[in-house]
Amino acid sequence: MTLRTPQLAAVLRRGRLALVFRAWLALLPILPCWQAVQAAPANQEKVVLQLKWQHQFQFAGYYAALFKGYYWDAGLDVEIREAVSGENPINQVLNGNADFGVGTSELLLLRNAGKPVVVLAVIFQHSPLTLLTRRGSGIKTLQDLAGKKVMIEPNSAELFAYLKREKVEADSLRIVPHKFNADDLVAGKVDAMSVYSTDEPFELKQYGVAYDLFEPRSAGIDFYGDNLFTTQAQIQKHPERVRAFREATLRGWAYAMQHPEEIINLILTQYGERHTAEHLRFEATVMERLLQPSLVEPGYMHIGRWQHVANTYAELGLLPKDVSLDGFLYEDSVSSESSRQRKWLVVSLAALLLIAGVAAYVLRLNYRLQAAREQQRVIIDTAPLALIVLGDDNRVTSWNRAAERTFGWKWDDVRNRNLLDFIVPSDDRKTCADMLEAARAAAEASQHEAVWANTSEGRRILCDWRFAVMPSSNGRLRRLVAMAIDVTAQRELEARLNLMAHADPLTGLANRSLFYDRLERALSLAHRHTGHVALIYLDLDDFKEVNDTWGHAAGDMVLRSIAMRLRKLVRESDTVSRIGGDEFVILLQEIESPEAAMIVAHKAEEAARLPIEIRPARYTQIGASIGIAFSPIHGDNPESLMRAADEAMYRIKHGGKHGVAVAREH
Q1: Tell me: domain 129-219, CATH 3.50.50.60, correct?
Q2: So what's the pLDDT on residue 604?
Q3: Which of 17, 107, 166, 422 is the one with CA 20 to 30 A from 307?
Q4: 595 in helix, strand or coil?
Q5: Distance CA 26, CA 34 (A)
Q6: pLDDT at position 179, please?
């Protein structure tokens, strides 16, 4: 692969020797793969990948998989197509013009509407889709968008969900077609536009235009982004090809995020210079936070997180309640987390040690605040955490380097500005103003945890704050020293660790540990209020035959289906748990009588007997033996109640299976 002589001459005439040199540097790593492609036999399977946007670092993993030869090694000749104005990229896959595509979480809505889309892998752990406005336009909250002109790109259901949650009806907006550039926003022809936080903010900075970002995550809408998908027909007709494409793609993403500069040069040489190298580096930097490649392997997705997406859509009326995810997620894509538990524990321990070290530093710092002004300034400027000094009117009088790193603003940008005007989200300003006043009134150092804060890039981060009052030399003016620690990644880690510790990884139900904890609490509460607790012990019948006949993947499908059916039978206050291989327990709190528990148990037995689709158009049927224990008649502690329910279940199991029995009174 060489540059033709006329092209080289033209480049030299334009004085762009640096570009040629950079092109060769980018091509060197891929030349062996390219030569192998030229020499290989022409028996590769031709497939088409449809992108959702034009060529840029957003799709770095696919370029790496192509030019590093991963697709070719998998027996695939892949064509990567960028989006074309006026065409819906998802429809290109559904219409058969492409085999694979990249889509938003709106794929879930399409699946519910009967479109046979299947998600193969998640690339962005957090969606970059957001709304952007020009600062100074008078739009300070989402509610200010009413009556304004807004460009929103296709397949942006999560943005409409965000607007609806914030009580902004789509009908109140003047929605205009998206032009896929920021020119109209800069010119003031539109008031807001949907953007990727990895892309357009860089353009606005280049224009010198200040902006604000409204992120769905601030309203609890935390969806996946850039989901690799295909159709059910592709999986049925070409299962090996789908598997090979997915594995090669994820291998490409792992390489791209480890070698961003190489991929940036590759994009510039292979796909033109629509974006500059600086623009592509900006994308790579922001994507590092959204993909979290150091914590999560490429492609990872969790059925519980998708259920959260479905529940959010249902809450906003965009999906029916209890919508099924069966068939929506690629069977091989939901990987077990057990192999990563040790890594998470190590990261958690490191985070705890870091917090302990910072806390120790803060304690020492509080005793040193009474020193001379010059000494205080040295301490403030060299502190390893964001440290801000505020006057009585909350105006910034000191801002250290760690604060610049944490929030993005330089000292000259914030000097004498009211902290509440730029760091605090508009919805939280009253609460944060009260927090600062309370900190001033406190006689000792105080702290506040998990408070949202803005950054200069328009992101929102979670910060823990520590406050101490510093009197001036005249003893009258009381300055407030505020110390901030960015704990966004730590809180996300804690949430994942908590899920791993208390959830069954296969079904998402409560595990044995969480179940016994809730049972003890329920019995204690029932004893204090003379109430009752019912325990339904369920053991699947003929489950071994499913594994022996269809394999363990089919057995896992049966367990997930039973889990989903049992969830639908109980109240939100009740608990369904998987405590063994094919053993489930239902805890009913504040139940009136054994007869009321019998109703639930019979419904559970009927649900277990319904046919279960384990493969397309292939069904199996099992049943369940169920025992019921009722407190305090059959026991007043977890062990006795579980033993009584277990004995009742075994009476059914040994008496012919498929039935319900109540424990005997002792």
Answers
A1: no
A2: 94
A3: 166
A4: helix
A5: 13
A6: 80
Please, which residues have CB within 8 angstroms of residue 459's CB and are 6 or more apart in sequence? 197, 213, 215
Using CA atoms, how far apart are residues 200 and 458, in angstroms rounded to an integer? 12
Contacts of 142 (CB under 8 A, 6+ apart): 131, 162, 163, 166, 168, 214
Quick one: which of 215, 211, 80 has its CA closest to 161?
215
Question: What are the Cα distances from residue 357, in Å, to 118, 122, 362, 364, 366?
Answer: 46, 35, 9, 11, 15
Angle 556-515-535 (CA atoms, 0-180°, nearest 5)? 95
pLDDT bucket at 541, cuts 50 / 70 / 90: very high
In tens, the pLDDT along 223-265 reads: 898 999 999 999 999 999 999 999 999 999 999 999 999 999 9
Reading the block at residue 617, the tokens are 């158009």
Burial 312-338 (b: 16+ CB within 10 A, else e): bbeebebbeeebebeebbbeebbeeee
Other residues' Cβ atoms within 10 Å of the Cβ of residue 443: 6
Asked if 5-126+224-315 and 129-219 have one fold, the answer is yes
Structure tokens at 248: 């090669």
Contact criterion met (CB below 8 Å) for 453 and 414: no
CA-CA distance, 118 to 332, in Å (whole number)? 12
Identify whether the C-beta of residue 80 lies closer than 8 Å to the C-beta of residue 74: no
Question: Do residues 138 and 144 lie in contact, with contact meaning Cβ atoms separated by under 8 Å?
Answer: yes
Q: Is the peptide bond before 632 cis (omega within 30 degrees of 0)?
A: yes
CA–CA gap between residue 593 and residue 171 (Å, rounded): 50
pLDDT surpasses 90 at 614: no
Q: What is the pLDDT of residues 84-106, one digit of tens each?
A: 877 888 999 999 999 999 998 88
For the chain, percent of residues with pLDDT exceeding 90: 37
Least confident span in 158-172, 281-295, 334-348: 334-348
- Assigned CATH for 345-491: 3.30.450.20
Amino acid occupying residue 585: V
Q: Where are the domains of the chain?
A: 5-126+224-315, 129-219, 345-491, 503-662
d(CA 37, CA 77): 9
- CA 438 to CA 399: how far, in whole Å? 21
Evaluate the CA torsion angle 114, 119, 123, 124 in order and state its sign.
Answer: positive
Q: Is the pTM of this model over 0.85?
A: no
Residue position matching structure tokens 């990261």: 347
Specify whether the CB–CB gap between 93 and 100 falls below 8 A: yes
Enumerate the β-bridge partners of residue 588: 534
Q: How far apart are CA 66 and CA 62, in angstroms?
A: 6
